[in-house]
Amino acid sequence: MSWGTSKHSLKLSEDGSYTAFSKEYDEHYHSTKDGALQESLLKHVQPAFKIKENQQEINILDICYGLGFNTLATLYYIKKNNLTCRVNIYSPELDATLIDSLDSFTYPKEFEEFRDVILALCNDNIYNDSSLHVEIFVGDAREYIKRFDDKFDIVYQDAFSPSVNPVLWTLEYFLDIKKAMKKDGILTTYSIALKTRLALYENGFNIYINSGKEFRDATVASLSVLDDFLDVDMKHKISCNKDVSPLRD
Ligand SMILES: C[S@@+](CC[C@H](N)C(=O)[O-])C[C@H]1O[C@@H](n2cnc3c(N)ncnc32)[C@H](O)[C@@H]1O
Asked: Are 208 and 248 in contact (CB under 8 A)?
């Protein structure tokens, strides 16, 4: 349990999996209440794959790699559910020192079988086999997402919170995300803030609630209509909160 960097310390979350605390952002990498593994699975992977798992090839944008839970939980979900889809995951991450440290991070036992992926990503920032491609872009997500057009089926929007990392939650940011996504793409995020939902809504996304007994509510957004989630009445929310506006660059 000795993992840490000059900017990070290890923290046990309530589902028994470890996450990290960022001294730089003064925030945990995951909800310590919901649990790191549970948060990845229930707020990101499960709702996204509920919609996409019958697709033969799935392109995922994982914003941002961090400890890699969303990428690794995706691999775990695919194995556990015997899915045969090909998956390509693209993940920006600013912090090179963090990526370099991940060979000694204390991951949950569910990720043990992906040790080769964890090591390849830590050492070379890339992993390839016949059914999986994962690449980490070490740099700014805002620049990276501009490279893509009509590419992603799934976006895991898992930046630090809007209050400490606002540039990854603005109206302009989500416009670039929208361009990078396919028209029937789905975005998942833990944020239920009206400002976040407005930034998505004003870019044409439909807004849905992802709820369940084991976790606090989260948000699913899609450019197409989804029948599997309860939708948020954004017109009503706006009329009740006239002073709230989306974050801007
Ligand atoms: C909440 S953590 C991501 C958690 C991650 N999904 C996981 O499962 O561990 C946010 C990450 O965003 C990174 N970050 C902050 N600003 C960034 C930017 N502009 N571009 C790329 N990465 C950024 C931070 O270094 C941090 O690792």
From this structure: no
* Cα distance between residue 161 and residue 142, in whole Å: 16
pLDDT, tens only, 111-150: 999 999 999 999 999 999 999 999 999 999 999 999 999 9
Q: Ligand 1 centre and the CA of 96: distance in Å?
A: 11
Mention every residue, 6+ apart, whose C-beta is less than 8 A from residue 138. 92, 93, 94, 96, 99, 125
- Strand 181-189 vs strand 206-212: parallel, antiparallel, or unpaired? unpaired
How does DSSP assign 157-197, residue by residue?
A: E-PSPTTT-GGGSSHHHHHHHHHHEEEEEEEEES---HHHH
> How sure is the predictor about 1, in pLDDT bands with cuts at 50, 70 and 90?
low
Residue 158 CB–ligand 1 contact under 6 Å: yes
Q: How far, in Å, from the CA of 160 to the mean position of ligand 1? A: 6
Residue of the nearest CA to atom 17 in ligand 1?
94
> Do residues 51 and 71 lie in contact, with contact meaning Cβ atoms separated by under 8 Å?
no
Q: What is the dihedral of CA 114, 116, 117, 120, to 10 degrees?
A: 160
In angstroms, rounded to a whole number, what is the distance separating the alpha carbons of residues 121 and 126? Answer: 5
CA 94 to centroid of ligand 1, rounded, Å: 7
Question: Is it the case that residue 161 has pLDDT exceeding 70?
Answer: yes
On whether the CB atoms of residues 95 and 5 are closer than 8 A, the answer is no
State how far the Cα of 203 lies from the Cα of 201, in Å rounded to an integer: 5
